[in-house]
Amino acid sequence: xxxxxxxxxxxxxxxxxxxxxxxxxxxxxxxxxxxxxxxxxxxxxxxxxxxxxxxxxxxxxxxxxxxxxxxxxxxxxxxxxxxxxxxxxxxxxxxxxxxxxxxxxxxxxxxxxxxxxxxxxxxx
Length: 124
Prior knowledge:
Structural class: alpha+beta
Shape: flat
Strand order of the largest sheet: 1-2
Number of strands: 6
Distance between the termini: 84 Å
Radius of gyration: 28 Å
Strand content: 15-25%
Helix content: 25-40%
């Protein structure tokens, strides 16, 4: 029992010492580290972090920019496609293989071809 109490006290002291040596990175620095990654160089972020307990904005990024939600873009694309092709149009996808099938597995490439080109222009 005494050994357990000593071990618990030592673990708590170690945790306090480790936490004391660490610097807390501000929220804006953490977010900047993420949004400035090379894979996001063409992305645009709009972020607002709001504290419900303090009733205040903690962080904001690109608040003055206008964004088109992805769901709206999908709806416009789908509606335009249905208008141009008709609601009963069915896409047909052909599947091809370049190698033999053995034991229900193909050892080489499999590729799909969707023979549809949709052109949206004022003259279409």
